[in-house]
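Good morning C.,

I know you're traveling, so I'll keep this short. The sequence:
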Amino acid sequence: MKIVMPEMSSRLKELRKEKQLKQREMAALLECTERHYQKIEYGEINLPSLDVIFLANYFGVSTDYLLGLSDHRARL
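The tokens, ready to paste straight into the viewer:
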């Protein structure tokens, strides 16, 4: 069974746009292809936990916020 986290996909896209980054730049940051990153943002691919932690730190938000488990951006 595949678990899809649409909240994470939309939050990742929102955070990327806030930093005025292109999908190509995010792909380079995660060391993946642009198409692979697009699939992450479209919710077709789930991220490994280490990538979630990396992105939360990069954007300065909590992992719970990024995953859609909390509406509070701040890390504790």
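Safe travels,
E.
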